[in-house]
Amino acid sequence: MSRGRRNAAAVALALAMAPHPPAGAQADARRSGYEFMGAATQAMQRDDAQNPAMLWVAEGEALWKRREPGVERSCADCHGEARTAMRGVAARYPAIEASSGRPVTLAQRISTCRADRQRGVAYALESEPLVSLEAYIAMQSRGLPLAPPADARLAEARRRGGALFRQRVGALDLACTQCHDELAGRRLGGSPIPQAHPTGYPIYRLEWQAVGTLERRIRGCYTGVRAQPPAIGSAELVDLQVFLAARAAGMIVESPGVRP
Question: Is the per-residue pLDDT at 156 higher than 90?
């Protein structure tokens, strides 16, 4: 047996031996990843004074208001108060970008806006300033339901994203759906397997000791199954996020979340 097949067999055995959800639980009921966390992690997310992600949110708020050297205007100069202007915005992304006709994530939209509207240098995807701004904007939608646009132009991206979610990849030959649909609620390597709903992003992960995006988490999953992750900002990652948003439609935004 090849090394890859031995590893896959070991993972399958560990999952099969993991405890099942309590009897009577609704296997098809959608649950936020927050519900799979331990009490200490949940308490950290609930209390903004304890939530480490609030440091990034504070930086995002400062960036929102700041007119930096070489930049014509701040975010606030165009949009005004984020608490009202950005309310519900994060809940509606990914969405179709008017100029390109392509689906883009909230982070991509912020970066484009910085270049096109603020006349500054676009933030690099996954850079700390961009993650901070995204976290600040996402927090303005906290408590609202995820509401992907009813835009027919997203249908193909959603279909492609669903196919990627079900596609086996990597040396471990696993698909997203095998863990997050079929085995949610069990444990792998001591950690709970959530249903992979994007309700808390950007999130603070104790593993990262930083706030990161949904895209970073997806890339980490690819690495975990020993597959080559798609490039940052790639169409494949956007398609997956379109699918995940539709899959979680109606669930409540918790940003910024906390996870192990």
Answer: yes
